[in-house]
Specification:
With 107 residues, the chain is an alpha+beta fold. The chain contains five helices and four strands. It has a four-stranded mixed β-sheet.
């Protein structure tokens, strides 16, 4: 990953309380895993931003290196990498995701 791509990702992650790197957009997810994350966040009523990795191959490859996580989607809350679709589903079912989001959005 180039320093420029890392800076772009840093900027995106730090500018948004809740950010999802995904395939497609929150209005039109382009894969089932991305759709799962969008549905969970929508059901919790939180505001979040998305980055469509299909639009930018440098970000698509760079984000995997940035997080040391091989798959997309990737969720960041308050600048911290949380996980992907499976992690989000598990945290949601346990009530942990709601708690994390409440704390993040209150700060």
């Amino acid at each position: 990953m180039t320093p420029e791509v890392k800076d772009r990702i840093d900027s995106l992650v730090n500018q948004n309380k809740v950010l999802v790197f995904m395939k497609g957009t929150k209005l039109m997810p382009m894969c089932g895993f991305s759709n799962n994350v969008v549905q969970i966040l929508n059901s919790l009523g939180v505001s979040f931003e998305t980055v469509d990795v299909l639009e930018d191959n440098e970000i698509r490859q760079g984000i995997k290196e940035y997080s040391s996580w091989p798959t997309i989607p990737q969720i960041y809350i308050n600048g911290e990498f949380v996980g992907g679709s499976d992690v989000a589903i598990e945290m949601y079912q346990k009530g942990e995701l709601q708690q994390m989001l409440e704390v993040a959005l209150a700060s």
